[in-house]
Amino acid sequence: MKIQKEDIHFEENKSFKIFEPSMRHRFFWHYHPEIELVYVEALNGIRHVGKDISAFMESDLLLVGSNVPHLNFDYGIETEYKQIVLQLKENFMQEIILPVAEFDDIKKLLDRSYLGLSFFGETKKIVAKKLYLIKEKNHFESFIALMEVLQILSQSTEVRELNKEDTRVKWFLNDKIRMGTIYDYISENYDKNPNVNVIAEIVSLSTPAFCRYFKKQTNMTFTDFVNNYRINQAKMLLLQNLCISEVSFQVGFESLSYFNKLFKNYIGETPTAFKKKHLNKIED
Fold first, then answer.
1. Concatenated DSSP letters for 73-90?
2. Distance CA 192, CA 246 (A)
3. For residues 58 and 7, is the Cβ–Cβ distance under 8 A?
4. pLDDT, tens digit, for every residue of 8-21?
5. 3, 13, 153, 185: least surrounded by Cβ within 10 Å?
6. pLDDT per position as a tens digit, 40-51
C-alpha cells in the first residue's frame, strides 16, 4: 500500500493507449512517467491527486501529469460506474508535441498537467464522448482524434487546478507511511469515532508526528478529512432516498443539526436541497 511506480506497456507502433479499467476494490496509490487523461462516470467518487483530496459527483474528467501520485479514481465506488483511461507514452511530449509549432497550446496544457487538472461543463461532455469514439477508431484516426481532444482541453476555460504546488513523485519518495492503511482505517471506522491516537499508533508515529505528516500530505487535518469522508458517504446515502436523520446517524453524527451545518459548509447547500435536486436528476 505504499506509493508504487506503475509500469505501463504500449502496443508496438502506438504512441498512446486507451482502455476501460475496473479497480474499485483495489487501493492503488501510484505514479508513472506517462501523462494520463481519465474520465469517470459515477453517482459519487473521490479524487486524490498529489495533495488534493476532493469529491466529485456524476462524472469527472482529469488530466494527471507525469510522476504525479494519484489514487485510482474508481476506488471505493459502490454504485455502477464507467471509466475510460488514456495514457500518453513517456516521450509523447518530446517527440510529437515539441517539434511542431502548431501544437504550442497543447504543450502548455501538458506542461500544466503536473498540477492535476479537472475539467467540467461542456468541455467534459464533449471530451468524454470523443474518448469513447477514439477507442473504436483505427490507429491513424484515433491519433488524429486524440490531438483534437488535447486541442479542446488546451483551449478550455472550464478547468480547475487541483494543486497549487509541485507534487511530483520526488516529493513523496521518502514517504514511509502507508496511506492505504490510513484510508482503510477511516473507511472501516468513519461511522463510529475514528481516533487519531489509534491510527498514529497503527502507522508507528507519535500523535503529534502523525498530525504533522497527515497535514503535509493532504493539506487537511485528520478531523477535517474524516468529516469530508463522512459527508461524501452521506451524499451517496441521500441519493438512495434515505431520510436525512437516518443518513446522519449512519455516517457517524450524533447531532442532526451539526450534520446539517457541516453538510452545508462542505457542499454549499443543505442535505434537503441536495437530495431534492439530485434525486430529480436521477428520476429524469
1. TTTT--S-EEEEEEEE-T
2. 14
3. no
4. 999 988 999 999 99
5. 13
6. 999 888 888 988
